[in-house]
Every structure is written in structure tokens, then in C-alpha cells.
Amino acid sequence: MKLKKLTTALILATLPATGVFAAALDRSGQSIAAFLQPGNYFEAGISVLDPDVSGTTLPALGNQNTGDMAGDYYFPSAALKLQLTDHFSFGLLYDQPFGADAEYTQSVAFTHPSQGNTSVEVDTQNISMIFGFQPTENWNIYGGGVYQTVKGNVHLRGAAYSVYGGYSGSTAAPATAIPAYDANIGEDSSAGWLAGFAYQIPEIALKASLTYRSEIKHDINVQETIVNPANINLPTSIIAGYTDGSTEITTPQSVNLDFQTGIMTNTVAFANLRWVNWKDFSIRPDKFGQLATALTKAGQVPGKTNGFDLVAYSDDQINATVGVGRKLNDKWAGNVSVGWDSGAGNPVTTLGPTEGYWNVGLGMQYSPAANYFIAGGVKYFWLGDADAQSGAQFGTPATVAKFEDNTAWAYGLKIGYRF
């Protein structure tokens, strides 16, 4: 069956466009497949997402079409793996695991004539340094450190964010009572770790791996601007009482389980399962939090008594992909896959208003020579319908808009080289 060669020549084609539109802020999928390749290996790739996400605001906010609020984005990845001895290996992996890119430009519920549009942009970068120990041909035990950076900016505008999202759903706030909020999250760096193990039987193209990644805590001095706070119905002493302080942002822990096995000559089946702990994730910038607490204590936000977060999620994410790959000849290989993502709860934040997805994918790989290849992939996503709510409404049934029948295309390209 020649499955030992098939293991290295085929499964690489499954990787482009692996994550790209998962729940919450999840983006890359944080694969370590490159580190588990035999010998010395290098790869570089890029994934592109083209989403179409729009919705309609509630009647109290005018039944307005939001327009396409999800921005196109791309992110690169790279990996270097060195087999130092028969029993020890070393790897460097680069990816951009979490991110967001959205802007409302049409609906007045999310815009303000003199203050601009509601928008969010979040970027992260990871460099993972991994050391592996292979006591036998079958086992690989690995672990290492992770260096991570995070930066972003958020702008809240429009009636849906009146009193920063304390809108109750019964009536739209007048424009004069709508403050604006800006947060500039300057780039911050911090460290975490990963650990895992892999088992393989090369003769039947069987390989399984389990990888845990820790949460990573960042303490950031977010530059916050609160515009027009005087129109909020609170005592002047509260409005004037804001102080500068540190904001904690902790990116979530995760677990990846990957499996493949030969099922017939030149053919393998594969499956990937990912869990991300979004339920324990939230962002409450310091000044935003002070105002949120003051608003709730003054009875301005229905159902809240002790402040609220800018972003939070109610559920953990589970993501699964299954597929079949086949080596067509000495130069060409391909795969087909089906993917599912649970989302991170519904209702969900207006800054990312989809609840999971289903997708189908196609990948192709061309190997001009035995030691290098070019791989490409495309996926089509049916994005889950979602009810969108502001941060102040989190944990209540209140919402501001409904998003339905949304889709996305994802594309990936990668080169790999063995040396």
C-alpha cells in the first residue's frame, strides 16, 4: 500500500484554510502538524477569508439592514522543524491564532453622523518554541513555550450602544443621549506554554496527537476615550471619577486532537477536533468597566447590578473536521472535507454576530519533486444564524439585531520543503 510515503506526501494538502472562521475570535486553529513531520522540514502559508455577514435591527431600532459588517482579512503562518538526533527534535511555529475585523457602515443603530461607525479590529501573533522527545519510532512527547502579542481597537457608536449597550429593547435612545466609546489596545506581549504527545504507526499511515495550550494573560494600559458622557443621566461626580488603570486580557486555553489512518491503497481518512475555553473569556477595559459599574448601580441597565463586559461569551467552542485524502499519482494529491463549529453561545456579541458554521472544503497538492510541494485549498461556509446583543445585554434575553443566511469563502496557499 506504500502508506509510509503516503503519510508525508498527502496529509499536508489538508492544511490550508483550516480555521479562518471559527467561533468567537478563533482564527488559525493552532495546528502543530508541521512539527510532527519526519526529518527536517519548513513550510510557509497564507489563508484568506471573504465573509458576507449582515443582519436586521429590531423594530425599536428601525428594522434597518446593517449591511455587510464583516471585513475580509488574511493571515500568514510559518513553521520550521529540525530533527536534531534520532530521539530529539525542535520546532518554531508562527501563526495568528485570534483576531477580529468588523465595521458597521450602513445602519444608524450602529453609527452616528458626527461620531463615525461601530468597528473592531483585533490582531494576535504567536511564536511557539517546541522540544520533542521520541523514545521510539512510535511515540513523540513534546512541550515548550509560547510568546504571544495582542493589539486592537474598538469603537462603539449608534443607538444600539446607547449608554454603552444598556439599551433595553423597548425604545431607541435619542441621538443626543448616545455617547461614543473608543479603546486603543496597544501591542502587549506575554508568554504561555504547550504540551502534548503523538503516536504513529507509519506502516499503516496512522498518526494521532493531543496538544494542550495554556491561557496567556496580558495586562495592558488601554487608551480609552469616553465621548459626550455629560448626556448620560448620572451625577457629575460619577462622570468625573474615572481613573486610569490596567486592563487584563487573557487569551483562552485550548486542546487539539488530530487523527489520521490509511483506509485503502493511496487513501487516508483524517479527523481534527478542537476545544477552546471561550466561556471563561471576557474583556472589560478599565474605564469602560468603571462607567458600566456606575450605570448599573444607578439602575440604568436592566438586569445588571455590578457592571458588564465589553465582550464575553456564554459557551466553549468545539470545532470538528473530517475528510478523506488520496494520492492521485507521484505529483498530485487531494482531499475533501466537512467541518462543523459549535459557536460560542447565542445570543452573541454584535462585534462577531454568527453562531458556528458548517463547511465543505477541497484541497490539492502538487509535488514537482519528492522534497517540496505547493498546496492550495478552498472552503465554503454556511454561517450559523445569531441574535446579536451588546455587552450590557450579555446574560439576558435582550438583543439589538438578528443575523441570518450568512456565508463565507476561505482560501489557503502553502509551500513546504524537506531538507
Automatic annotation (TrEMBL):
Pfam families associated with the record: Toluene_X (PF03349)
Signal peptide, first to last residue: 1-22
Keyword vocabulary terms for this entry: Cell outer membrane, Membrane, Signal, Transmembrane, Transmembrane beta strand
GO MF: long-chain fatty acid transporting porin activity
GO CC, one annotated term: cell outer membrane
Domain of life per record: Bacteria
Primary subcellular site in the record, as a coarse category: membrane
Topology of this chain in the membrane: Multi-pass membrane protein
Subcellular location: Cell outer membrane
Keyword rRNA-binding: no
Coiled-coil features, chain-numbered ranges: none
The family this protein is said to belong to: Belongs to the OmpP1/FadL family.
The name this protein goes by in its record: Transporter
Organism: Acinetobacter bouvetii DSM 14964 = CIP 107468
Lineage: Bacteria, Pseudomonadati, Pseudomonadota, Gammaproteobacteria, Moraxellales
